Amino acid sequence: RGKMEEGKAYSPDGVFAHLEMLEARAHEAAVKQEEMEEQEEKLARLKARVQELRLQRDELRAKVDLQQKGQLGKEGVVSDPAQPSARAVLEWKIKSVKAMLQIFYLTGISGKLTKRGVCFCISTAYEGTYLDSYHLDLLTKAEVQIHRHSVPVFIPLEQIAKKYLQTDIRRFLSVLSDHLNAYAGRRYQADQLQDRFSDRIEGTLQRNSLCNLLVFNYNVSRKSKTFPFNVRLLYGDLCCSLPTEVTVSCTPDAPASLAETAAAHSDLFRRVALHKAFRSFSSAEGS
Amino acid sequence: MDVTVAEYIRRTVLKIPRDEIKTMLQKWGFLSETQLQTVNFHQIKENISQDVVQLCEENSADIKQAAALDIIYNHIYPNKRVWSVYQMNKTGEETEFFDLTDFKKKFKRRLRSALKNVTINFREYEDNAIWIRIAWGTPYTKPNQYKTSYVVYHSQTPYVFISVSVLKSNLPLLCQALVVASNYHDIREMELRSHSLNSLKDIVFKRYSQNFQTYYPRPLQEGNVAPESGDLRIIQENRNEKERIQRVNQEVFGDGPQPKLEFAQYKLETMFKSDPKMDVLDEKEPFRCLVKFSSPHLLESLKSLAPAGMADAPLSPLLTCIPQKARNYFKIREKKGFFPGSFVSP
User: Fold this and answer.
1) Domain B83-205 maps to which CATH number in 3.40.50, 3.60.90, 2.60.120, 3.30.70?
2) Where do the H-state alpha helices sit in chain A?
3) Which residues form a coiled coil (chain A) (predicted)?
4) What's the pLDDT tens digit per position in A180-209?
5) Is ipTM > 0.85 here?
6) Is B98 in contact with A208 (Cβ distance < 8 A)?
7) Positions of CATH 3.60.90 in chain B
C-alpha cells in the first residue's frame, strides 16, 4: 500500500509499472490460492480414504472376533449338544499336525529329535515325481557325528560331512540334499530313456552308479534312411541333473546335413532333460 | 573248436539244473533260437550237454564265449561260492566319472603285464554291477579254466566282492589290478564273508532295512503278536513284557528282511574271570577261545531269539552290531578298567 501511494504520487510511467506490479501480485496470489485449495482437496480426499480403510478394518476385526468367539463358544459351552466331543477335537488336532509333518516331509528335508540327537530324512524328487528317501541318524551330544545312514555309498557323504557337518549343519543338509536330488534326477532320466525309448537306442546304454557318465548310440532317420549317432554325456557337476559336456558324433560317411542335426541335438541335451529331448526328436521326426 | 573249450562248455552245462538249461542258453545268446529248438531238453543232462557242444562246434565257439556262459551261470547261482568283501581307499576328492571302457582296459593291462597267461572276461549288468572272471595260469602254463576267481564291482563305490578259488597266491596281483583300474590307492580285506553275495551288497551298500525314527507316517505294523481273537479263557500273563520285547526287537533289527549271513565268529583274547578264592589259573594269561555262531540265516535267527524266549532283549550289541559294522569276524580283547570282553577291535 505504501508502494502504491508512492507510485501514484510521481510519474505517468510509474502508473503502468505499478499496474503491472499489481497484476503480477494478483496473479501470484491467485496461484497460491489455487495451490492451497488443491492441498486442502487432497487432504480431504486422504482423510476420506483413511476413514474408509478404518471402516474396513473394523468390519474385518468384527468378523474375526465373531469366528473366534463362535469356535470358543463351541468348545467352552459343554452343555451344547451340537458341539464336537473332546475326542473329535483331539482327532482334528492330530490330523492337522500330521498334515503339517507331511508338508515338512514333502519339502524334502525333515527331521525328528531322538534320544541321542536327531534323525533327518532327505526325500528326493525330479520334476514333480517323488523318488527315494534317505535317512541320517545324527548324534549331537558331544560333537556332531553320523551314527547310521542310508545314503548310497557312491555319494561323497564323508567329503561333505568333513566340510560342513561340524560348522554349519544347515549347509551340510542342503549340500547333501543337492547331491541326492541331482543323482535321483539323473537316474530318473536314464531309466526313463531305457524304459520309453529303448527302440531308438542301439546296443546298451553305458552308465555308472552315479549316472554321471552316459554313453550310447541312437538312430536318427533322414529321408527314410537311419543313421547312427553316438553320444557321450558327462555330468561334471554332481549337484546338477543336466550334463556339462556333450559330444554327439555321427559316422564319417553320413551326409553333411547331419552334422547340423548333431550340433542341434548336442545343444538340446545340454539344456533339456534326456527323455524330454528324445520325446522332441520323436515328435519332430514323426511329422 | 578247441577240445578244452568243448569240454569246458560240456561241464558247465552239466552244472546247470535241467529245467534251467534252455533259459540260460537263451540268455547266453550264442546259439540261435532255431539251433536251440533242435535240442531235446527232456533227455538226460549228459545227452543235452553233448548236443549243446555239437551246436557250439557248428558256431565255432572259443574260450571267450565259453567264459561268458560261465559268468552267466555264476551270476544266477552266486550262492555256490563264498564271497569276501574288500574295501578300497583313496585320498583325492576329485569327482569320479568312471568310464567302463577305461576301467576294463586298465584292469586287463595291469593284470597281463604281470602274468601273461590269464583269461579275463567282463560282463555288465543292469544294476551297475561289473562281473569279472579270471582264469589263472602260470608263467609257463596256459590258464586253467577250472581255477577261476570272480570279482563283482559296482562303479564309483569303494567295495569289491571277490570269490577266490584255490589260487590265493594270485590275490595280491588281482587286488593291485583292481586298485589301478578303479583309480583308488589301496585295498584291504574286510572281516565280512558269506555265501550270499546280495546280502553282502545289502550290508555295505546300506540297502537293508534300518529302523530310522521319522515323523513320516508309515503303515502301522500290527507286529507278530497274535490277534486278540481266540480262546478267551487263555490270559496273556506277561503281555507287557512280550510287547516290550517286540518293540526293542523292532528298534534293533528294523522291519524288513535281514541280510543273509551263515556265521559270526568271535575270537576271544580276554582274561578268564573266576572267583578269586578258587584261583583256577595261576598265570594271568588271556584265555584263548573261539566262539562261532552258525545258521542257515544267522541274523533272522538272532532276531527271533528274544521273541521265542531264548534270550533277553535287548541282545548283546556284539551280536546286533553285525550289519552296521559290516563285519562278522570279531576279535575281542581286554580293555583295561572296562567290562571284560566288551572291547571290539576295529
Assistant:
1) 3.60.90
2) 2-9, 12-76, 86-106, 157-164, 169-196, 257-271, 274-286
3) 19-70
4) 999 999 999 999 998 888 888 888 888 889
5) no
6) yes
7) 83-205
